[in-house]
Description:
Mean pLDDT of chain C: 89
Structural class of chain B: alpha/beta
Order of helices and strands of chain C: HHHHHHHHH
Number of domains of chain B: 2
Structural class of chain C: mainly alpha
Strand content of chain B: 25-35%
CATH class of the largest domain in chain B: Alpha Beta
Oligomer: heterotrimer
Distance between the termini of chain C: 29 Å
Radius of gyration of chain C: 21 Å
Shape of chain B: globular
Number of helices of chain B: 8
Strand order of the largest sheet of chain B: 5-6-7-3-8-9
Strand content of chain C: under 5%
Radius of gyration of chain B: 23 Å
Order of helices and strands of chain B: EEEHEEHHHEHEHEEEEHEH
Low-confidence stretches of chain C: none
Largest sheet of chain B: 6 strands, mixed
Amino acid sequence: MKRIGVVFAAALLCYAYAFNHVDAVYATDEKAHLTAPPSMSVIKATLPYLQQLTGEVLYVKTAVYIGSVIKHKLNIQPELLANNFETMQKVHPYLFDVYHMENAYMRDMGDPYVKRSIAMLKDGMIKLPNEWRLPFYIAFNYFYVLKDNSSAYQYLHKATELSGNKFFSHLASVLSAKDGELKAGIIWLKALYENETVQIEREGLLKDIQAYEKAIMVQNKVYQYKQIEGSFPTKLENLIPNYLPSLPAIEAKFEILYDDELGLISLQRPRKST
Amino acid sequence: MIKFNNVSKTYTKQIGEKEAFKALIDVSFHLKQGQALGLIGANGAGKSTSIRLLMDFIRPNDGEIFLLGAEPERAIMRKHIGYLPEVTSFPKNLTCMEMLYFAGKACGMQKKDIQVQAERWLTRLGLWEHRNRLLRGYSKGMQQRASFAVALVHNPKLLILDEPMSGLDPLGRADIVSLIEELKKEGKTILFCSHLLDDVERLTDEVLILHKGQVKYYGGLKGVREGQKGWRITLSNGEVKFAKSREDLTGVLSELAEQIEDIQVEHESFEQAFLRIVKGD
Amino acid sequence: MVDSIKRIQALAKIIFLDGMRRHAVIGLVGLALISEMFGLIFLDFFAQDLGRAVSDFLFSTMWVTGLIFLFFHAVQVMAWDEEHKVIFGIISRPISRSEYVIGVGLGLAMLLLLLEAVLGGLAFAALLWVKSSVVIELYFQVFNYTHFILAWFGLVLSLLVVLSAILLFSGVVRGGFAVLMMSISYYFIASGLPLAREHISTLVQQGGANAALEYILQGLSFLFPDLNRMDYKNFILVDVLPVSVSEISMQAMLSAAYIVLALSVACFAYNKRDIQ
């Protein structure tokens, strides 16, 4: 028994020493690891009931990887990350955290990845039809990264429908104006105005409606100019005095922009000076 | 009670075997109510196969079997059978009482009747104090006795006992022998399978000797022995002589008349008769 | 009939007691609790959809534990009975072969139900606790108790389908290992078949495969049911069922009918066998 005790104690000491050494090496390992996700077919074929759990495990692995990348200021591997997100989304399309995380990180990985992110979010809208945050994320990606405002405001309207939050519609109408879709924008503003009960909000909306109405009036004059003169005016001032006595003053909340090639009037929020 | 009519059983050929094993070949016997039949034979003679056929564990290839007037496949007839297997077969994680309750319930007994019978048989078999212990904690002898209790709890008409003395010490064996004698007196029909020929001779009325799947002898115990085998002559100097025939006896008497102390008629023992029948000598 | 039920119940009781004393249930509950405690460490990652992550994890634990019970205990029961000759002691009673199969099945089903009831109760309590602890309601908006019970029934019914297949294999083949291999193969075929059907269906539509293959796979689905169809754990977090009650009832009836069919075949096969 004594001999066994001595052998055990010696083995334990060796083990403790080796453990400490190896663990220290592991702790200083700065590489962030993320493996390619398993094939979705394999997951669905072998683990049908555990599909969702597999998605969640992949999510945790990805979250750890991203955390490590941020911590050690490493370069992210975009294709690997995107593949993992796509597998997670296919395997567990009901888990909102996946959309939240993929939207946050794929947005900064370049246009092709933003488009893939949007595709995932659109899939998610089918599975989670009542989740307003998904159309909101899509709208944000279209607006902020892809500069596709018309697509953006479509999804903002969807977000409004689902959330009942008027802000999204208001934002949609601002984007409509930016894109030259003044008539579409004014319809939304008027709908908002009709349903608004808070007086100060109604006053703000009324001012926006008035600004849109003035811009629409100018737009109509531009089309009239084209009909008579045969081309769009090179600048809005050319409408004076035959078509307009003067350019209408629009509230400082908007600045009026004019595209002389398309003859399109748009309204834009003025850029903040830095 | 039991009728075996020209029953044959051949086990399916296994991988590596040259031919299928014929366990029973055209075996017939009839056990009447109140009788005790001893089933004996060497290892592999077909005793266990016969019992398994009776209990419907296996099915015959040829012939007919009737158990209490019905085919063994009619499970309900087993309500009247108490079976003691060669190897005790309990789920080891049950207590003896739980096993008895199961055995009684399966035979349609009421809970209070099971309790009464369980107490009767466990007390008779010396297991009452151990009734709530798990069966895996029992010794081999205790398990054998528990198995006996399970076979008797539902008051069966027919007892099929396969090596009932297995695992028992001499005291336990004597106890079981007296129990079987009591059961026989109560009018139970007994099919008794054993290697212990003394017990078979003591407890049964008829005997069936099997060898290599065939019936070598079936009939009363008296008919097993050929009768008188000879004379044993003990001389005054301690020497023992044996005379097989009357001529031999006359010869010895005439030569050694003054030295003869004792003369006894020698009968063939049951074991000698069994060996003779099985070996064909 | 009444006597038959009593015999089946008596046998089921001893199977249940034997299983309990082998610590089949207690051991697995312990295993499930340890894995759940371990899993709690990772739930911190799920900020937005905590409710879903917790319910998925708990139900997945119940599923895996149920499968472990089936593959490591249920598969062995009939094989143990034969190997240790316990079956002789049982069917020497007036218990028919069919009653034996059904009795064993009922005993194992009782053990499985107890295991899943304990784990289900713990899962319910865990979900209630998490819901009450979440500060931002958005992260765990809905916890529907009725749908939780529905998801639990779906899980148990799926496991009972697997159990009926195990009893069928136990009736047909001898030896615990052979039954285990057949049961695992059955599970993987049943899991993979829906995906194969989907793939072949797409190919057929595109003209890349013979339509007969689709029918063959449909026929195979008759034998290897889709175990995922009763997976209702996603419904726990919604108030309105996305599928109709009639659809759920039909699926439950399908599973129940499958169990009865499998047990019938098991009884038939066991009646024809020699027990050696």
